[in-house]
């Protein structure tokens, strides 16, 4: 069942053209697929093997005549055809499917009465028998027939070339996609939808029709998505010279969707939470996520669709690259520094912990059981870091040269990560022999740095040691090239000019030919141990290491606390300025945790409080950046740094520090709230978003004090809020403390929003994530609430995913959290294996906890793996978790 990269074989048959006909029905849907097949192999007797799942084969014809029974064989997941013509032939397959009963939400399914599809990675095989692999690229036409009243809108890929009436109240539409594509980019939508229409004129002057489709009542919430799409189209032209290649671009919002969104050619399908927004119902974070994902899916038109993947092991070829592109887009639209901080936090919290656990895999995995399990933070976010490293090594202009060459060589092809690497290096005439290892080696490298200043020689030396840890199946690792961006601060906190650096025997001049000097040097670290020496350093500097997080590594350095406070106050690199504060917070919390475990009394030193005070009150800083600086590292981030994670001690210590800060800075926090409150109409611009984020984090601190006067303030903030950002932040703050104010606010919020499913998901998540002891019973109760529906992935992610995010409750000592999650996984797996598998992943770090907890979670994992009819999806995650 396991599939290996090394077993890749090119297909024996090409599918030149595919004509599909869908007869959509309430009970049965018929799919007729007409394929022009071209034999490719020298072996004329090669069988044609088609994938197919949950299909009923109705007829099977070659060149118009039924295929004799001896010439085909149907298995549970394959259709084998033999004795085939040796030259081009026509294959016609009719299958019957039941989209109305498809709860897996892959293939063709129904969501709130409308038909829609999700084919990536391997969903097309649930529609018809096909070579369901990305290196089979064809020209598709799609004819859709359906009841006109129930399904007035019929959408497919490409251009609408025909439409009309049929008998029995039916109608039809024919769509033709002029671009060849793999079947995972196929899409179809049929239903009662209306569109928000606008246009975009491309750089060559073509006018493209843009349409965002939703149920009628949601149209007012599509303005932000439309604007984001137009900005994304413009940005891709300006930054990469990439223009849209059709006259129509459709986006459809559907409420039931496993993932975020899907880049189907000219017919993107989105989870509605990533399209719909209004100031009253969506937060600043929602607005930002919509902008980013609209961009992401649009950018796939070039990085994914025009150039696609040879096989699914290459997924990061399109995803890592497209995430990098959407990160850059969002940086250009908002604050670059804050975006980088958010992206790195996410990488460290989710990806570093994946890389250290049983599911650790390289950016290009070597094997998988179920591909859907590899749509991971490693393939996406670490993959984006790998792409970013090319840019750090080659420079922006060099990176652009590489992109241009990549498209010049591979437009219209299905390729591998090697091809991307070759285009980047060839375009810049460089060779970095150890860089390809980033695609093959799992695990987060540790980069240990020690520094020394020689006042006589006026040199500053940086000693690096790099180590890539063993991961499942990969005991031995090699050092790989990582760019280490370094700045040196003088005693005034200014960046020193860096003139040259010695790397072993060679001296590198850092001043450019035209005399421009640099203040950040990019060191090429590619050996297990290596030394770099900066010359002409007139005083002992404070080093700013790994600026802008120039490589996805764990940095361990000998920088002192004094240096960190200095960097927090002065570093010109925004990321490292924030990181200095985070490093101080992590050290503080780890120290307090060991004190807590020994039963000692806890205290926070005044230097730490002063560091926070001066950052908070520094009016020269961007408020959104200040809000980031005020956010302490999360509980899971701290847990990952401990030998044996102790969720209770971590939680107590983190709460202790928060309360300490709140008590010490009470007046400043209140002033911040006053100064940054606004009752004016919602303004999504950076300035106002920044103001809100700072005010709301201050409210969170104040809430920890649990004083009646503060509660009153919070309740007023909640009641007077003019937008969802402020309303839900106040609600979250109130919810920190059990009591009447909490129950009242929760019930008011529910009454206000019960008709809006996306808002109610916030209400579910907020309760689920609560750290109130014994919350598992409350969450079990919510399973029965009308607001919950286990068939809707968003609701599962809010309620179940939310619950697992509360470490104290999920890892409760009595095992009640583990049992709860296993109960859900068992039930969910029958309905939707992809979502069940994402939920079961919460168990994957079970070995990080004490023995009693290990025994309790192991028992639940064993219960899951022993289940009858378990999906491959859940089996893979649960069994790999147990094995490691
Ligand atoms: N290609 C989509 C995106 O990143 C995600 C599709 C995920 N599908 C899945 N079955 N895991 O934009
Ligand atoms: Zn993507």
From TrEMBL:
Residues 225-429 form the Peptidase M1 membrane alanine aminopeptidase domain. The keyword Cell division does not apply. Its cofactor is Zn(2+). It is an enzyme of class 3 (hydrolase). One of its GO terms (molecular function) is zinc ion binding. Residues 443-556 form the Peptidase M1 alanyl aminopeptidase Ig-like fold domain. One of its GO terms (cellular component) is chloroplast. Residues 562-883 form the Peptidase M1 alanyl aminopeptidase C-terminal domain. Coiled coil: none annotated. Its EC number is 3.4.11.14. GO terms for biological process: proteolysis. It catalyses: Release of an N-terminal amino acid, preferentially alanine, from a wide range of peptides, amides and arylamides. Residues 21-185 form the Aminopeptidase N-like N-terminal domain. Keywords: Aminopeptidase, Hydrolase, Metal-binding, Metalloprotease, Protease, Zinc. It comes from the Eukaryota. Belongs to the peptidase M1 family. This is Puromycin-sensitive aminopeptidase. The chain holds residues 189 to 1072 of 1072 of the full protein.
């Amino acid at each position: 069942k396991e599939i290996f990269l090394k077993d890749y074989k090119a297909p024996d048959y090409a599918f030149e053209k595919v004509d599909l006909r869908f007869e959509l029905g309430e009970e049965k849907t018929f799919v007729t697929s007409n394929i022009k097949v071209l034999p490719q192999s020298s072996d004329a007797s090669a069988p044609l093997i088609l994938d197919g799942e949950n299909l009923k084969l109705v007829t099977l014809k070659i060149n118009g005549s039924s295929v004799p029974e001896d010439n085909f064989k149907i298995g549970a997941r394959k259709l084998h055809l033999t004795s085939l013509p040796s030259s081009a032939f026509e294959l016609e397959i009719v299958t019957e499917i039941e989209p109305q009963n498809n709860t897996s939400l892959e293939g063709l399914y129904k969501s709130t009465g409308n038909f829609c599809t999700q084919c990536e990675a391997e969903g097309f095989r649930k529609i018809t028998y096909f070579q369901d692999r990305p290196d089979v690229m064809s020209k598709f036409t799609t004819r859709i027939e359906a009841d006109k009243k129930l399904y007035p809108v019929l959408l497919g890929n490409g251009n609408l070339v025909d439409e009309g009436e049929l008998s029995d109240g039916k109608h039809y539409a024919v769509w033709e996609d002029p671009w060849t594509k793999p079947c995972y980019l196929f899409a179809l939508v049929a239903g009662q939808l209306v569109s928000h229409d606008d246009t975009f004129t491309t750089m060559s002057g073509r006018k493209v029709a843009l349409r965002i489709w939703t149920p009628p009542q949601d149209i007012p919430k599509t303005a932000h998505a439309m604007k984001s799409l137009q900005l994304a189209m413009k940005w891709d032209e300006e930054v990469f010279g990439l223009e849209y290649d059709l006259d129509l671009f459709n986006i459809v919002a559907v409420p039931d969707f496993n993932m975020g969104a899907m880049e189907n050619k000219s017919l993107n399908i989105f989870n509605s939470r990533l399209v719909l927004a209004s100031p009253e119902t969506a937060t600043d974070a929602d607005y930002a996520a919509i902008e980013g994902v609209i961009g992401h899916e649009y950018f796939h038109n070039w990085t994914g669709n025009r150039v696609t993947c040879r096989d699914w092991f290459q997924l990061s070829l399109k995803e890592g690259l497209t995430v990098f592109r959407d990160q850059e887009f969002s940086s250009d639209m908002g604050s670059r520094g804050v975006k980088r901080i958010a992206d790195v936090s996410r990488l460290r919290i989710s990806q570093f912990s994946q890389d250290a656990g049983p599911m650790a895999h390289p950016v290009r995995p070597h094997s998988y059981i179920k591909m859907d399990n590899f749509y991971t933070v490693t393939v996406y976010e670490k993959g984006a870091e790998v792409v970013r490293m090319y840019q750090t090594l080659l420079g922006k202009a060099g990176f652009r040269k590489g992109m241009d060459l990549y498209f010049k060589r591979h437009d219209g092809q299905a390729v591998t990560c090697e091809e991307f690497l070759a285009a980047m290096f060839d375009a810049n005439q460089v060779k970095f022999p150890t860089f390809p290892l980033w695609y093959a080696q799992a695990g987060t490298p540790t980069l240990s740095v020690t520094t020394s200043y020689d006042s006589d020689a006026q040199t500053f030396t940086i000693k690096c040691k790099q180590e890539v840890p063993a991961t499942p199946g990969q005991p031995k690792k090699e050092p790989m090239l990582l760019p280490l961006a370094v700045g040196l601060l003088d005693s005034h906190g200014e960046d020193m000019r860096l003139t040259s650096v010695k790397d072993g025997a060679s001296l590198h001049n850092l001043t450019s030919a035209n005399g421009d000097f640099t203040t950040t040097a990019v060191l090429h670290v590619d050996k297990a141990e290596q030394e770099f020496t900066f010359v002409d350093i007139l005083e002992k500097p404070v080093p700013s290491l790994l600026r802008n997080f120039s490589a996805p590594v764990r940095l361990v350095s000998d920088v002192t606390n004094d240096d960190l406070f200095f960097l927090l106050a002065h570093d010109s690199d925004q990321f490292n300025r924030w990181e200095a504060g985070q490093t101080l917070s992590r050290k503080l919390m780890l120290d307090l945790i060991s004190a807590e475990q020994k039963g000692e009394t806890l205290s926070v030193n005044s230097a730490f409080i002063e560091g926070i005070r001066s950052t908070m009150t520094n009016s020269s800083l961007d408020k959104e950046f200040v809000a980031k600086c005020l956010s302490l590292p999360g509980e899971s981030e701290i847990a990952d740094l401990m030998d044996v994670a102790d969720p209770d001690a971590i939680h107590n210590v983190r709460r202790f520090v928060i309360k300490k800060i709140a008590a010490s800075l009470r007046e400043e926090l209140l002033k911040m709230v006053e100064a940054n409150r606004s009752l004016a109409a919602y303004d999504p611009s950076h300035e106002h978003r920044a103001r809100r984020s700072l005010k709301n984090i201050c409210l969170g601190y104040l809430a920890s004090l649990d004083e009646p006067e503060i509660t009153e303030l919070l309740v007023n903030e909640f009641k007077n809020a003019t937008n969802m950002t402020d309303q839900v932040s106040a609600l979250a703050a109130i919810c920190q403390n059990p009591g009447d104010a909490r129950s009242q606010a929760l019930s008011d919020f529910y009454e206000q929003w019960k008709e809006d499913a996306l808002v109610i998901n916030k209400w579910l998540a907020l309760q689920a994530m609560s750290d109130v002891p014994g919350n598992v019973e409350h969450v079990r109760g919510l399973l029965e609430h009308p607001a919950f529906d286990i068939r809707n992935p968003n609701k599962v992610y809010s309620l179940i995913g939310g619950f697992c995010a509360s470490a104290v409750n999920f890892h409760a000592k009595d095992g009640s959290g583990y049992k709860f999650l296993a109960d859900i996984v068992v039930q969910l797996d029958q309905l939707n294996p992809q979502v069940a598998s994402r939920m079961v992943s919460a168990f994957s770090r079970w070995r990080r906890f004490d023995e009693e907890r290990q025994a309790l979670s192991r028992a639940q994992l064993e219960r899951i793996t022993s289940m009858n009819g378990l999906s491959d999806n859940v089996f893979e995650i649960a069994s790999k978790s147990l094995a490691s």
